[in-house]
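I'd like us to work through together how a protein chain folds, taking it slowly. To get us started, please write out a protein record for me. Label the sequence line and the structure token line clearly, so we can match residues to local backbone shapes. Once you have written the record down, we can walk along the chain together.
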Amino acid sequence: RRVHGEQISCKKDLVWPVHCSAIRMTSTIHKIYETLRRLSKSFDLNQMHSLSQALASQEFINLTTLVDSLVPQDLGLVIPDLSCSSPCDPPSVALPITFQYMCENSVFSMGIFVLPRYGLIPLHNHPGMAVVSRILYGTAYIKSYDIIPPALPDGNVSARLNDHTVVSVPTTRILYPWQGNIHSILAETPCAMFDIVLPPYNVQLGRDVTYFIEDVDDEEDDNGSDHVHSEQEVVTLVPYEPAEDLVILRGEYMGPVIVDDCI
């Protein structure tokens, strides 16, 4: 996959440098940034015990309340035509997804995924991480799994279905290290999702992204047809490398400038 013509390898490589200068702003996104700064100064988000405490704190509640108020205009987004013009069948070649980088440091990151209709981000994990997501426009089908320890041989994962639902505006979702940590996103219309990741992917610290497929034997019932697992079923998720047609390009963020002070 390519970002501005440069080859990247899936979501884990979407990292860019930040600028170092403290600022004070009053827009919603700057209030979110300042709340994240306070949260990261009160808790060590790179340590699981401290991250768990942060996710239960009043500051985190304040953060999610601010995220709940976000609308596309706050982030410089223009809502496209969401109607289904004919033909409305899936394209023969996958259309690229774009990611608008906003800021990233050692303890949190912010960005926007913009998906075309039928755009798919396959099942993937967020090891030791939490994600706050806000759908800004459009509709998406989200499927998530809870991880059941310990890890299986060959990197396989035992998991139990956490949720499978269609989400639209206004919806904010929270993914925890222990709940819904593996998920996939399928755009039913063009859609945009704002993401806060606590802390970001970091290969050196063991936070590398892995993509999964559901085990074929689990995916078929006695008649060989697909079905959605119940929340009681335990399934096996198998690591795999996404197909070449999974394309994520770097998009241009047009909202208020965020100047990170390099926490």
Notes: The longest helix spans residues 28-42. The radius of gyration is 18 Å. Confidence is low (pLDDT under 50) at residues 1-24, 219-226.
